[in-house]
């Protein structure tokens, strides 16, 4: 595999020397326009970031290329106010403002996509749009899945000109990667065009014995049928395999009765996973899009996404270790999980005149059908801690596999109105009627109907007011309704009422100096009322009595002081606390895995017009305050730490560029996750050398 990757990229790059077309790589100071003026659709209506009355950030192609980003995790690294928590090599969760964030694919919602789905390779995507804070208008129900915000992954689209871009990357721990991106017009006029992306990745990890491969392909056809009609269809495929994948480190306690938990003292290269552990993931995805201009300033968009994923794995997780007997209760098991989903949306956007002002309307409907079909078997067995080779291979009696199935159907209709009261005062009104039905089947085939029985055509409103006292200075205030179904039961057996609440956000977005300086500041307050409050532990019954309050500040600065120089910095303060609870944690942090203070800085300089023309240098620092697995076990925490990353690049000519990336330069020892299935050490110092060819 590794030799094939090298040969693959070398052959393709060799063609560049003889290419006839001079397609100079755009190093875009470009980012200037991208950040402030280029429209994004993550908040609903397609607007420039500076005009959206919510906290929005964009990861653009330049940053993806220069920092050698290949995964969603790497792209989210520098986003203000976002915390990444590793689940495993193939999946992560993202949190903001005390809650989980949700994924959207080209503006289409995706139920439970972070907890259960493998993410596609970043090579398939053009950019990533991130909105922080409640975003239930498009995401759908239950809105609790999007309380932290939305990550919108925007796929690559074809252009009218022929171009080929290839890359080869070699990095730490035998990390080999090859990639090719072909933009190919099919007709001379470019009205029928295509784009093709292929990649292959073969790698080890810093921890012992672990190895993974990943290959994928993406193709898209786009057809300008008429001046007013555009069709697009794409297909994405990804196949990932992992052997002896790291499942995290267990906590340790004094004895089996001790309720405290602490980190186990082992080298970060230690992998407690037995050699027979393996995982496979396969993903197939088809996306259809149609854009139709209905009349002047009015457009119709129709999108349908069909995604089929399958995970099969045999695993062993080490449970908490007791010092008294040095035993760990290993969970060994087998899982075969099929996850098909169909998502569709249709929306209309347009402008109209009223009271001598131009107003904007965005309205539509979306639908999703999601299935999680499992065959599984697991068992707990105690083994001596410290020797994964003694953990016996889990034998699979296929005729005894448990079976479960969950079906979720959700949909809604929504609308967003931008009403220009006067030329510099805009009112945004949004609302969504949502419904959801879920059915669950246990291994015996018994059906439990409509898990979310309380959520049927519920209306969720939001409103924002934006005032522009000066050009490119927007002051805004916004309100968002919270509505989250709960599955806990009351004493009479009925389902607990949904949680309710609201988010209030005030902020200012600015762009000065010909869009070369942007300063965004946002303050927010979230109240989450009616959470499950246990009143009878013996009978496991609840009432709506719990209360959570989250508040904080986001500050983001983007600057381009002079040609070639760019820097971005952000600071987030987050205070989450439980105001009322039956669990003995009143006054403590609601989301302890998120640090109270987060600071991120990124700078780059691209030399032009000197003897160093073509060179670029950049560095970034991410710093975090203390985070905890649980406020009830504060000894199991991640103390404050900072990570230093850097890159250097050289553009030899219009065809060849070279990149050298360094991560965790100071080799800081830290955890990328504490708690959950296990503690994960973050990556030690590592590097990657990449060559890119364009022709």
Structure report:
The chain has a single domain, classed as Maltoporin, Chain A (Beta Barrel), CATH 2.40.170. It has six helices and 40 strands. By secondary structure, the chain is mainly beta. Helices cover 5% and strands 57% of the residues. The strands form six sheets. The chain has a 22-stranded antiparallel barrel. The chain has a five-stranded mixed sheet with strand order 3-9-10-7-8.
Helix content: under 10%
CATH superfamily: TonB-dependent receptor, beta-barrel domain
Quaternary structure: single chain
Cα-based radius of gyration, to the nearest Å: 26 Å
Number of helical segments with 4 or more residues:
6
The CATH architecture can be given as Beta Barrel
Specify the overall morphology: globular
What ranges have pLDDT less than 50 throughout 5 or more consecutive residues? 14-37
Beta-strand segment tally: 40
N/C terminus separation:
26 Å
Give average pLDDT, whole number: 87
Structurally, the number of domains stands at 1
- CATH fold-level name: Maltoporin, Chain A
The percent range for strand residues is: over 45%
Tell me about the biggest sheet? 22 strands, antiparallel, barrel
Structural class of the helix and strand makeup?
A: mainly beta
The CATH class, by name, is: Mainly Beta
Question: Which keywords apply here?
Answer:
5% helix, globular, Maltoporin, Chain A, 5-stranded mixed beta sheet, 6 helices, mainly beta, 22-stranded antiparallel β-barrel, 695 residues
